[in-house]
Amino acid sequence: RGLGSVINMRDFERVAEPLLSTVAWAYYASAGDDEITKNTNASAYQRVEFRPRVLRRVGAADASTTLLGCPSSIPVFIAPAAMAKLGHPLGEVNLTRGAGATGIIQAISSNASCGIDEMVAERLDGQPLFYQLYVNRDRKKAEELIRRLDANKFDAIMLTADAPVGGKRERDLRLKGEFEGPAGGVSVKSDDTQGVSQAMFAGVDPDLNWDDLKWIRSITSIPIMIKGVQTVEDALQAYNAGADGILISNHGGRQLDTTRPSLDVLLEIRKHAPQLLRPEFRAPTGPTAESLAHPERLTPADDASAKPLPRRFEIFIDGGIHRGTDVVKALCLGANGVGVGRGFLFAQSVAGEEGVEHAVNIFKQEIELALRLLGANKISDLRPSFVEVKDK
Ligand code: FNR
Questions:
Q1: Is 251 a catalytic residue?
Q2: Distance between CA atoms of 113 and 119, rounded to whole angstroms?
Q3: What pLDDT, in 10s, does the model give residues 61-86?
């Protein structure tokens, strides 16, 4: 399966489409209702424009960073996406191997088509793994799963909060009655009344609430990130409730359609709750009084009066990210890292583990190129002054 023609992440989608079954294509590519948010997630990044600095010794660049304390060769992780076996016989195992070989982090879906043990068996020494949690209505089952995550030393739990029920994914619905396969350890069957995605939500508890976060916290010390935050209010509530981080996400537009693109939520947090960001990211975008007074400095001097939050709180974002420049823009605006969902599903569908490695290399090269052309050498050089955000 030709990787030669794949030179960017959009190419994976184009090459994957004819290789996938109609059911797989519909499940992977679909989004809620009219798929408006799926598209604005991506186009929103065009509203952020760069302000590169010149003559900055960019002979070398380093895209590595840490995500919730775990090393990562690039500030990109594999967002949890179910049913990788629909695209390739080895399924999520491709993601575990590809992530291990390239030094990035895989977040495993609760609805993965491979078992936890199969993926953990592929884990290299010291390879970090995150787990995305859907909380079962049966709390005994939920607790057993969390204890398994503990026993397997998972590095973070992503508690998905934007999917108490499944969205209306019409491409998927039109194919109901045509699929049966494994997900999350149970067999999922779409029938005459539901498509694949609806069948998968059968065990998920729609009454999940902030008290359950306390309950999860009481049974495990694994760091917890809330996935699916879409307002500054919920970002603040997540911090106040003791979460270690949030993943700003609208599930790739697969849930409530016409929600704002993820990028706008990050901008809202910058505006109304800058204290949630690391101090150096609270500055406005564009030139500032300080950068004009000291144009020779790439990064502003530390403001001693700016206090970091009393405890760790990292901000991640996903949805519509296709380019190294998208990643760098999100980081300039204060994100610690970004997730990519469909891109890695398509990559493993096209060429298994090798496809995943190819995707990471594309991101790595594009991120390093963007860093150097911006006048930066490393992820910690990035600041809001490297971008300007245009009004809608
Ligand atoms: C997802 N996503 C998802 N999220 C989650 O918390 N649990 C899950 O099981 C799944 N499953 C899933 C399947 C498929 C096919 C897709 C495309 C997505 C959402 C995923 O984690 C992520 O939020 C989005 O995919 C990010 O958007 P992009 O990168 O696909 O645009």
A1: yes
A2: 10
A3: 999 999 999 999 999 999 999 999 99
Decide if 257 is catalytic: no
**Among the options 27, 88, 155, 162, which is catalytic?**
162
Residue 218: partners with Cβ closer than 8 Å, 6 or more residues away: none
Distance, in Å, from the CA atom of 315 to the CA atom of 244, rounded to the nearest integer, reads 9
* Cα dihedral sign, 159-67-383-376: negative
Question: What was the pLDDT predicted at 301?
Answer: 77
> Which helix (H) or strand (E) segment is 229 a member of?
strand 224-229
> What residues does 225 pair with on adjacent strands?
158, 245
Distance between CA atoms of 166 and 53, rounded to whole angstroms? Answer: 45
Which of these is catalytic: 45, 134, 244, 264? 134
> ipTM of the assembly?
0.99
Closest C-alpha to 350, from 106, 25, 130, 23: 25
Q: Which of 385, 382, 166 is nearest to 255 (CA)?
A: 166
Q: Mutate which of 246, 254, 317, 345 to test ligand 1's pocket (most atoms within 8 Å of Cβ)? A: 254
3-class secondary-structure state, position 246: strand
Q: Look at strands 156-160 and 224-229 and give their pairing.
A: parallel
Note the pLDDT of residue 186: 64
Give the number of the atom of ligand 1 that is nearest the alpha carbon of residue 109: 9
- pTM value is 0.97
Cβ atoms of residues 83 and 183 within 8 Å: yes
Around 217, how many Cα atoms within 13 Å sit in the side-chain half-sphere?
13
Q: Whose CA is nearest to atom 23 of ligand 1?
A: 251
Mutual orientation of helices 210-219 and 139-151 as an angle, nearest 10°? 50
